[in-house]
Design brief:
Blueprint lengths: L7 E3 H8 L3 H9 L5 E3 L5 E4 H6 L2 H4 L6 E8 L5 H17 L4 E7 L8 H11 L3 E6 L10 H10 L3 E4 L6
Amino acid sequence: MEDIQSVTISIGDAAKELGVSVDTIRRWSDQGKIRCERAPSGHRRFYLADLKRIQPRDLKQSEDRATINYARVSSHDQKNDLTRQIQALEAFSSANGWQFETIQDLGSGLNYNKKGLNRLLNRILKGDVGRLVLTHKDRLLRFGSELVFAICEQMETEVVIINKYPE
């Protein structure tokens, strides 16, 4: 039986193993993020043991991951504020040259079961979000935003807060 440390697989199989495209594997190999050997034919061969230790988010650069603007207001009466938040977030992200998506929620900052917040958290946990942009810290949640920020740190998601209140 072959030792797993020496088993190599093709670029196509490596792409399937990590759930990314062959072009992505080739780029990561060229950047030195994934070790490979060249077969006598010149084709790249990837060590299965190396791939088993890698999560795709470990290799993604922040520009490969989404920038998400998140806006929230508590009630329908604040629709104008929601519009202003979205405009501020989108102007800020555009001025920084970021490609972005905007997620918006209508609901209390005490409510953890908002559709947009859950979608945002799922994407962060999947490693899809490289940057989260907020107008203010409390737009995410009234209490508990530090927990979300800790998750962001673990998932290497940058958090950008445009307007910081004085502590």
